[in-house]
Design a protein that fits this description.
globular; disordered N terminus; mainly alpha; 75% helix; 2 strands; two-stranded antiparallel sheet
Length: 313
């Protein structure tokens, strides 16, 4: 009798779920374990380095870098919420996760994702203010305003995502308890319920529209205004200098949203694709953005790059 069957038979209202590594090839899970572990270590090292540099370098105590430090904290939170269970699945074949642990992980994954999306919006507005009113930049975004923005981001995240664990907890689970990934997501767990999930689907749609959907619109509007401002600059060199300050942020936007869109498209329309494709996209969505963000900002931001160079030389 397989592990999955034994779990399905042992409880009609499951208290555990089964996480999945490489579908149908569990004996090859270790192939993914080492790259994941390396990504996890790079995530910790990269984001902690960014936080240390911003903390110790007085010239980086500006709104842009404060937002970057919040982004680094969000990436660390996402990595620490997911990587332990992912490494457990791929390295030790520890595929069982309790119901409450799954709900908790689900909440933190979606919460840190919403926070990151919100920070990207704040950084877009920050770039617009810096380019539109460079002389009044620090006065328009003092620390009090930054704190209020941070409180607003956390408040929106908590208000929108706190109901999700309770919406899942009310559902009975009497069918399969095997999830699609090596971590828990709301859309994955709710489809295992043996009850009507219309409320979960509608509320999930409301959350997506209120977070990522709204954030994308604000980011696009911000960059339209940024382009208008840049085109009004008479100096060609001035235009390039203004646009150059946005490159890191544009990269961060692409790093965050492309994997998210990819996972959504594959999950929605790629049912005919190999399960390995689903597994790879799910792992890229969780593991890659937290690694790439500190690399992008370290390479493209002169002050951070110089400070890191001094640290290791």
């Amino acid at each position: 009798m397989t592990l999955t069957t034994s779990f399905n038979d042992s409880s009609m209202n499951h208290q555990t779920f089964i996480l999945v590594g490489i579908p149908g090839m569990q004996e090859r899970n270790s192939w993914v374990a080492f790259p994941l572990c390396l990504l996890y270590l790079l995530t910790l090292f990269g984001n902690l380095t960014i936080l240390f540099v911003i903390k110790t370098e007085q010239s980086l105590h500006e709104p842009m870098y404060i937002f970057l430090s919040i982004l680094a904290c969000s990436d660390l939170g996402l990595a620490m919420s997911t990587m332990p269970t992912m490494l457990g699945v791929y390295w030790f074949d520890a595929r069982e996760i309790s119901f409450n642990a799954c709900i908790t992980q689900m909440f933190f994954i979606h919460s840190f994702g919403a926070v990151e999306s919100s920070i990207l919006v704040a950084m877009a507005v920050d770039r617009f203010i810096a380019i539109r009113n460079p002389l009044r930049y620090t006065s328009l975004l003092p620390n009090t305003v930054i704190v209020k923005i941070g409180i607003a981001i956390l408040s929106r995240t908590c208000c929108l995502l706190l109901p999700i664990p309770f919406l899942i907890k009310r559902l009975p689970f009497c069918r399969s308890n095997v999830l699609s990934h090596s971590y828990c997501l709301h859309q994955d767990v709710m489809h295992l319920a043996c009850a009507d999930i219309t409320v979960n689907i509608l509320y999930g749609l409301i959350v997506v529209i209120s977070t990522s959907g709204l954030d994308v619109v604000v980011i696009l509007v911000s960059y339209v205004l940024i382009l208008q401002t840049v085109l009004s600059i008479t100096s060609h060199r001035g235009r390039l200098k203004a646009l150059n300050t946005c490159i890191s942020h544009v990269c961060a936007i692409l790093i965050f949203y492309i994997p998210m869109i990819g996972v959504t498209v594959v999950h929605r329309f790629g049912r005919h694709l190999s399960p390995i494709v689903h597994m790879m996209m799910a792992n890229v969505y969780i593991a890659v953005p937290p690694v790439l963000n500190p690399i992008v900002y370290s390479v493209k931001t002169k002050q951070i790059r110089q400070r890191i160079y001094k640290m290791f030389h």
